[in-house]
Please model this.
Amino acid sequence: MKINYYLKLLLATLILPVLYFLYDLIFKSPTTPNSMHILWGFLSNILVVITLGFYVSYSTLRRFKLALAVFLIYYIIGHFNILIEAYIFNVTGRVDTSKKMLQGLIIVSLFSPIFVYIFDKWDGQSKSIKFGYRAAFNWVWRVFLGTFLYLIFYFTAGLILQAVYPALMDFYKDKIPPFDLMIFTQFPRGILFVMIAISILRTINLPLIKKALLVGLVFSILGAIAPLIPPNEFMPGNIRFVHWFEVGISNFLYGLLLGYLFGQKTQNEKLTAANNI
Model:
């Protein structure tokens, strides 16, 4: 059983670079990557596949619903939110950002149903988990608090990184956007993180602590670690490396906290998180 699972992970990992190659073949001239790019790309892809594989293995969804869930998680956390951040900080221009958005949209759209099929989740019907009652007001204040907490984690992590690694500003000295623009963009990004966290928590059949850990890992690996592993032309290695720690840690802690904030008891388990306060 374990060998079969590992083979599924390996197959899914190998499919991603194939999709990227086909995209380049159709939309632009493909380049021949060197061995180091292939190695770092493989490491990035296998981290993505392991994280998504854990979600898919314990998801209550099946077929198109599960494929859609995988698409939303992978595209919003692993592509859209990251590219918006890169654009706001002038790391990528409008044209490059649009191209990367389109590339991610096409590849993730193709990869998601294939991934679900590889993990044998295309058959069967979706199951629903019956949660305890939570009033609408309790949902509203949790969403606002979860979004506000993202701003706290975001700015705190950035300030700490500047303090411990002053060379960061050598790269960002002429790229920092106005503060009001940062707030305007980070608030919607926070809402997207909250919505993805809620969708994960409500569609996997696991104890709350494991659900919260998965949310943290999704945010950390898909939203920071995996995308920053492969070398790219937009960000030097030392900047990618420090962001790897900064965003990876802050996203994990933020996701873990959202797991607690939005945790609910089911009909078959005791209350394990703030539930109907």
User: Anything to note?
Assistant: Confidence is low (pLDDT under 50) at residues 270-277. The longest helix spans residues 136-164. The chain has one domain: 2-124+133-261. Residues 2-124+133-261 form one domain.
